[in-house]
Each structure stands twice: as C-alpha cells, then as structure tokens.
Write a structure and sequence with these properties.
The complex is a heterodimer of chains A (447) and B (165). In chain A, 37% of the residues lie in helices and 13% in strands. In chain A, the strands form 2 sheets. Chain A has a 6-stranded parallel sheet, with helices on both faces. In chain A, strands 9-8-7-10-11-12 form a 6-stranded parallel sheet, sandwiched between helices. With 165 residues, chain B is an alpha+beta fold. Chain B is 32% helix and 41% strand. In chain B, the strands form 2 sheets. Chain B has a 4-stranded antiparallel sheet with strand order 2-3-1-4, covered by helices on one side. The longest helix of chain B has 14 residues. The radius of gyration of chain B is 19 Å and the shape is elongated. The relative contact order of chain B is 0.20. Classes of the chains: A alpha/beta (447), B alpha+beta (165).
Chain lengths: 447, 165
C-alpha cells in the first residue's frame, strides 16, 4: 500500500533514512524503479533537502524516517517548511501499536512533538485506514496554504496485510480551503486602487507558491504599480524588472521600506506581515489603505489591520484583477522610488570573495573549496542554469544579494542536471550564508 | 473590547483533537477559561464548549486559527447568541456545625443548589447553573466558610435555544 500510494501521488524522489521501525517500508521500495531514494547522512539534512526539492519543483517533498531519533531529527525541518508554506509529507516509523506508551525502544510521540509546527499530524492506528490517511496527507500538504503533514506509521500497521486500493478522492469535512475570489471585495479593492496616487504591490511567497509570477508581472505592467517583495516573495516579478523596488523589512532595501512608508495603498498578496517586514506595527505603512489577498484567512488582519481582506488563491485573484485593474498614471511616484533606489543602492558582493574562500569567513573545515560568497553562488548557478530561486530558504544574505531575473518555476529542471541531485541544491546553496550548518551533506551531492 | 466569550466547536472525535485545540491556546498564549468536550448524536463528532476572555482582534484570530485546524469541523460564536448554558459544580464544606448546616440550607435556596450528602461534619453540595451564577455562589460561600471549601467545577456546556437569537 505504501509504495502504491507514493506511485499514485506521482512521487519520483523519496528522501529517506532507514531504521528498525521503518525497515519494512524500505524493503517494499526495493525494485521500485519509479522512485529514487535519496539517502543523506542525517535526517535533518534529509528534510531540508526534501524542502528544497518541494520549493524548486512545486511538488510535495516526501520524507521517510524511522521512529524515535529518526523522527525527532526532522523537527527543525518540519518547522522551517511549515512556516514557509512548503508542502511536505513526512512518514515516521513508530513502535508497534501495542508498545505505544510503554517508553519502548526508540519510541517518541512525534505527533505530539510536531503538532504545533505542522499543518496536520496523525498516527495511523488501523491498517484499513492507511490508504485514506495517506491520501488525506498529500491533499492537506499541497492544498490551501501548503504545509507539512506528519504521518506516523506503527510497525505492525506497516506489516499488516491489507488492501492495496488507494482512494481516488478525499473529502475532509473540517478542511475546505477557499480558493475562489469574492467579487464584491475585489471591486472594493479596485475602487480603492483607482483613487490611489502612490499605490504599491507587496508580494509574498503566496504569489510564488501559486505559480502566478507571469500573470503578476503582467498585472504590475498593466497597472504601472511598483512592486516590493518579502523574502519568500522574491521573484514574484523578475528582480531586474523596472517596476521592482526591492525586498521589504529589516533585511530589505532603503527604497522598498521608504516606499511602504510613503504609499497610500498597499496592495498585498500572499504575505503574512511577519515582524521582520513590519517592524513596529503602529508605524508600518502609516498612510496606506491596506488590501490583503491571502488563501489563509488566519493570515489576514493578524498582525496588521487590513482594510480590504480578500480570501483567495493568489493566481485566481491575480487573474480576476487582470480583467478589472485600472491603468494608473504614476509617473511621479515611480520617479520618486527610482531616486530612492539610486540614492541608496544595495551593496553588491565583492568580486574578490572567490579568492578569499580560505579566509575565516567560511570556516567549514574540509569544505572550504566548495564555498563561495552568497552572491557569487547565485551568479554562478545563474550562469549554469539561466535562472535561480531561493531554494534553501532563510539565507538572508542571499535574500539581499541574490537576483532572480526570471521566474523560479523552471529551476529544478535546469539545476538538476548541473548538480546531479536536488539535495545538492540544498547542500550547495544552504551553506552560502557563510556557515556550514549541515556539514554532513555535501557528501550526498552527486556530480 | 476585552470580555468573556463563548465558542461552540464541532470537532472530529479522534485521538489528538483535544490536544490540538488545547495546544493552540497554550502555544499562541490565548486565554482559556474553560473547555468541555463530549460526544454527540454522531459518534464521529464531538462538541466542545469553550469559555475565554479576549479582545475583539484576538478573538477573531482565535476563531480563524480554530477554523484552520483540520480536526475542527465548525466554529460557532456563542458570545451574543441565544443559548442555554450551564455548569455542574460540586462543593464540599468541612467542619460544619448544626448552625452551619442551617446556614448552608439557607444559602442553597436562592441558587437552586442541592445538598447531595450530609456527613459527620462535612456537607456535599451540587449546583448546576450558568457559570456566572456559580461564580457568585462560590464568592458567597467563600465569605461564609473561608478555608473550608473543596470545589470541583465541570466547565460550561452550551446549546442554542430552540427559538434562536
């Protein structure tokens, strides 16, 4: 059933580290040619790699680890992926159901441990539920605001004979993400926009997750409204686009932050107004009416009071906006932003960093030769691939320096051949912040 | 405005649901006054009644967070709804003299509380009333019998009136 389910979900890569309570599932994977099993040196590297895979491909990253330490080693990766809305399904081995609660060998309550940092966590307690639970897990992970689902599989459930029929449909009565746009709210937003003299788009990860980049670029061009992004939203429109101002917040640019402070309408899509971008909430965008489109109602008006909330999938909303959005005359506003940009450019990474790779700054012993300056990393991959994306997540220097001249969709297709394996994307980009946190994993890189 | 609020939750009757809901409140530092849960006419659905104190904005966020939980089927705001709401409470009073017993009987009357048991020097009382009435009654008993009370409260259970709001 397990393998059937993975195949039915189109899983081609499984990030997996074996152990006693998961060994039956590994046995079942022998001879399954459609699934490539990536074995790292540690589960934390494993889940970050699955996270990178999911970010780059837009598909669900799938992890399989054993019980106890195998499961607990996933915790940081689960939190990272979940807060960044990355779809992962993590299968954890578990001691047999009769031993649960006995403090058995390598038993931990991973569902309890991860409950507050994942979208859904469940222990499968009956073999007949296995198919439905896995179906549910993939559906929850990838739909709505994507996130992490933990599926805990006791060893006796793994071994029990049972039906291999995998359900085609899933219906969860407590989980119905709303993706359609409320037209009334959208019209209100349009009215607000028509009055605007200094409007600004604030784009977050939601635009990238919805793969709405092209439409978003067209929308920005049609309206003429300048764009700032969050770290997760970088690449929502190309960073070399004339309408792109920069990243917002504590890690952002002067021009982007000044533009937010000065704008009169902040049209935000797929953001969650994290404290890193808002700073002091009472002083955030003080002159602006705030429009917020998000698929997650709980992200709206949580940190920042929103004037016009719209619950919708970013792509659907942007599509609807394209039909209705006005073309505005914003020449003066854009010129002002250009002056801010010119007056306070971002520092560019020094060219000689490559020659300084043996300096103390990159002290990952044994891997120094692999490390380069963050900006350089992106530029070199860019040259290889023609484009690049923030695969490894919270590398702030990369977020500052990195350029995304094109859209991130094609990343995996282009990087994969160049690095041999997607875990390599993680292993090579993640240390680019100057610290080699997962030093075990460059060994996993192929090619 | 910070005030007392009530929620009625329809949730999956599954292992872990209570932990998820309770964990949401503790993890996000939401105030939680009381939480009751029990089965319903549908064995796959449990119903919770939650009492909490919060301001408007936090309350909106709490409702959204609960709605977002996969295990939560429906969230109903009972704060300003027409509902029946009652809480079971037991009270033991120690060291009771004959005069105390007479006093207790007198105090039970306006609150429709019952004497369940009368021991050698202890009296066991039961009160089923709205939470606020129980609060009032406890305040009265504390004044009359300071340091001699043992209290167990069940938390409120609420349902919409037939007439509706």
């Amino acid at each position: 059933m397990f393998v059937q389910a993975l195949l039915a979900e189109g899983v081609d890569t499984l990030f997996a580290y074996p152990g006693g309570q998961a060994i039956d599932l590994f046995d079942a994977l022998y001879g399954v040619e459609q699934i490539r099993v990536v074995l790292p040196r540690h589960e934390q590297g494993l889940i970050h790699a699955a996270d990178g895979y999911a970010r780059a491909t837009g598909r669900v990253g799938v992890c399989l680890v054993t019980s106890g330490p195998g499961a607990t080693n996933l915790v940081t990766g689960i939190a990272t992926a979940n807060y960044d809305s990355v779809p992962l399904v993590c299968f954890t081995g578990q001691v047999p159901t009769v031993l649960i609660g006995n403090d058995a060998f390598q038993e931990v309550d991973i569902v309890g441990i991860t409950r507050s940092i994942c979208k859904y966590a469940v222990t499968v307690r009956r073999r007949e539920n296995l198919g439905a639970v896995i179906k549910k897990a993939f559906y929850i992970a990838r739909s709505g605001k994507p996130g992490v689902v933990v599926v805990d599989l006791p060893k006796d459930i793994q071994r029990a004979p049972g039906s291999a029929d995998y359900p085609a449909q899933v219906d969860i009565r407590g989980y119905k993400p709303n993706t359609e746009v409320h037209m009334g709210q959208l019209k209100k937003a349009m009215e607000c926009l028509k009055q605007a003299k200094r409007p600004l788009f604030l784009l977050g990860g939601g635009v990238n997750i919805a793969r709405a980049n092209k439409k978003m670029t067209v929308l920005a061009e049609k309206t003429g409204i300048p764009v700032v992004t969050t770290i997760m939203g970088k690449g929502a429109i190309p960073t070399d686009h004339p309408l792109y101002v920069g990243n917002l917040g504590i890690h952002g640019s002067y021009a982007a932050n000044t533009a937010v402070s000065a704008c009169d309408v902040l049209f935000s899509i797929g953001v969650r107004f994290n404290d890193r971008i808002t700073g002091k909430v009472s002083e955030f965008a003080p002159n602006a009416s705030i429009i917020h489109i998000d698929i997650d109602p709980a992200s709206i008006s949580r940190n920042i009071a929103v004037d016009i909330p719209i619950v919708a999938d970013a792509k659907n909303a942007i599509r609807a906006l394209l039909d209705r959005a006005p073309t505005l005359d914003l020449t003066d506003w854009r010129a002002e932003i250009v002056r801010w940009k010119a007056g306070h450019p971002l520092p560019t990474p020094p060219r000689d960093l490559r020659r300084r790779r043996h300096s103390n700054e990159h002290s990952g012993a044994g891997h120094r030769s692999r490390l380069r300056a963050p900006g350089h990393h992106l530029h070199s991959e860019q040259r290889l691939s023609g484009q690049c994306a923030p695969v490894a997540g919270a590398v702030l220097r990369k977020a500052l320096f990195g350029h995304l001249p094109a859209l991130p969709q094609g990343l995996s297709v282009r990087l994969q051949p160049s690095l041999g394996a997607l875990p390599g994307v993680h292993a090579r980009l993640h240390p680019s912040g100057g610290r080699l946190r997962r030093e075990g994993d460059p060994g996993t890189v192929r090619g | 405005m910070t005030k007392k609020r009530w929620l009625s939750l329809f949730v999956e009757n599954e292992i872990g649901t209570l932990a998820r809901i309770a964990g949401l409140f503790s993890g996000k530092s939401y105030n939680l006054n009381s939480l009751t849960v029990g089965t319903t006419e549908d064995p796959t659905v449990s119903r919770m009644t939650i009492g909490l104190t919060s301001d408007d904005r936090t309350f909106e966020q709490i409702k959204k967070q609960l709605n977002r939980s996969v295990e939560v089927i429906r969230v109903v705001d009972f704060t300003d709804a027409a509902i029946h709401s009652e809480e079971l409470m037991f009270v033991k009073i120690r060291g009771c003299s004959e005069n105390d017993r007479a006093e207790i009987e007198r105090l039970c009357l306006p609150f429709a509380a019952k004497i369940l048991e009368s021991g050698a020097d202890t009296v066991l009382l039961e009160s089923v009333q709205a939470e606020s009435r129980n609060n009032d009654w406890i305040a009265l008993l504390q004044r009359c019998f300071p340091g001699r009370l043992e209290i167990v409260r069940g938390g409120s259970v609420a349902i919409e009136t037939i007439g509706g709001a």
